[in-house]
């Protein structure tokens, strides 16, 4: 059973739900020690006081805020715990919103909320069922580790989950990163949509959704422990430079079909009877008066998903 990270309550109007917070994720990655390569001795990080020049114990270490060049203001953990902030003792629900209204980039770590004893079972179940029936999530505020945070409450397998969230001003504006506008044909967009359809899944179960890096590290460690050669690494294919976008899309669709055991024959999309869209490829041809000017096709923005 995972250990309790924080104990408090959910404040839901005048309803209080006592809860324990436990981590919803497990770390299965392989961790290494720092060692001296010459003799394999452990290299440790030691906390040294700059004034006394000696190593200090954890019990002697506290927090200090740098004010100016030469002044440090000490701040005790007890003082932080006693800050007059409602969210220091409870997870305060501020609003209920549709999940799709929240940008996934704001959503972070997840924690399970466990009701604190039988007295909390009824209000806990009330909040859980209200969230399920409303098809909404709760936006909250809470204070952990010396700072106030924003959170999101949702339901997973009859358990309330708290997700840490980033404040809006912590998300960088990506406007400067987007490329210039380009011209795309309807055919190219349709092929991309067909590729999305072929790669659509109902869930994330399968061998392709396993941590192959950790498995490879385990095999490497086993081989070194048994004094044998580690498995040979496959040479990755260098990504090819896309010259013909339509050809690359068609080949991708064919590979997606083949991976699912479908007919991998690539069929051209029937041409529409409307006027051809403008492409970036220049062709020499006799100029003919157009009945209707070609319209510019722009890329449709995908809907946000939770």
Output mean pLDDT: 80
Give the N-terminus to C-terminus distance in angstroms: 29 Å
Helical fraction: 10-25%
Spatial strand order of the main sheet: 1-2-8-11-10-9-7
Describe the structure.
With 306 residues, this protein is of the alpha+beta class. 20% of the residues lie in helices and 24% in strands. It has helices spanning 77-81, 121-134, 186-198, 212-225, 245-259; strands at residues 4-12, 15-23, 35-36, 41-42, 63-67, 71-75, 90-97, 107-115, 137-144, 147-156, 159-165. The strands form three sheets. The protein has a seven-stranded mixed beta barrel. A hairpin with a 2-residue loop joins strand 9 (137-144) and strand 10. Helix 3 runs parallel beside helix 5 (245-259). The radius of gyration is 29 Å and the shape is extended. The relative contact order is 0.12.
Question: What are the key terms here?
Answer:
306 residues, alpha+beta, seven-stranded mixed beta barrel, two-stranded antiparallel sheet, 5 helices, disordered C terminus
Summarize the structure.
The protein has 5 helices and 11 strands, in the order E-E-E-E-E-E-H-E-E-H-E-E-E-H-H-H.
What topology emerges from the helices and strands here?
Layout: E1 4-12, E2 15-23, E3 35-36, E4 41-42, E5 63-67, E6 71-75, H1 77-81, E7 90-97, E8 107-115, H2 121-134, E9 137-144, E10 147-156, E11 159-165, H3 186-198, H4 212-225, H5 245-259
Parallel strand pairs: 1-7
Antiparallel strand pairs: 1-2, 2-8, 3-4, 5-6, 7-9, 8-11, 9-10, 10-11
């Amino acid at each position: 059973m995972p250990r309790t990270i924080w104990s408090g309550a959910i404040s839901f109007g005048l309803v209080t739900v006592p809860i324990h917070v436990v981590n919803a994720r497990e770390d299965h990655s392989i961790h290494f020690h720092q060692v001296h390569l010459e003799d394999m001795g452990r290299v440790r990080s030691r906390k040294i006081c700059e004034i006394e020049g000696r190593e200090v114990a954890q019990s002697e270490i506290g927090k200090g805020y740098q004010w100016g060049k030469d002044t440090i203001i000490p701040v005790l953990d007890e003082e932080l715990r006693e800050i007059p902030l409602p969210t220091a003792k409870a997870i305060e629900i501020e609003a209920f919103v549709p999940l799709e209204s929240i940008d996934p980039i704001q959503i972070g770590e997840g924690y399970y909320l466990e009701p604190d004893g039988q007295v909390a079972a009824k209000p806990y179940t009330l909040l859980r069922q209200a969230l399920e029936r409303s098809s909404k999530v709760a936006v909250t505020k809470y204070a952990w580790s010396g700072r106030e945070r924003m959170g999101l409450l949702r339901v997973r397998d009859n358990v309330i989950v708290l997700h840490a969230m980033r404040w809006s001003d912590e998300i960088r504006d990506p406007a400067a990163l987007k490329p210039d506008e380009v011209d795309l044909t309807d055919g190219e967009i349709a092929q991309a949509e067909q590729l999305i359809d072929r790669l659509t899944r109902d869930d994330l179960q399968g061998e392709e959704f396993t941590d192959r890096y950790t498995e490879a590290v385990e095999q490497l460690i086993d081989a070194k422990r048994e004094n044998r050669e580690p498995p040979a690494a496959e040479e990755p294919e260098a990504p090819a430079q896309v010259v013909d976008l339509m050809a690359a899309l068609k080949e991708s669709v064919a590979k997606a079909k083949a991976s699912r055991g479908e007919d991998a024959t690539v069929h051209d999309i029937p041409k529409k009877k409307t006027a051809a869209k403008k492409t970036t490829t220049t062709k020499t041809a006799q100029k003919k008066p157009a009945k209707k000017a070609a319209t510019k096709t722009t890329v449709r923005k995908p809907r946000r998903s939770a």
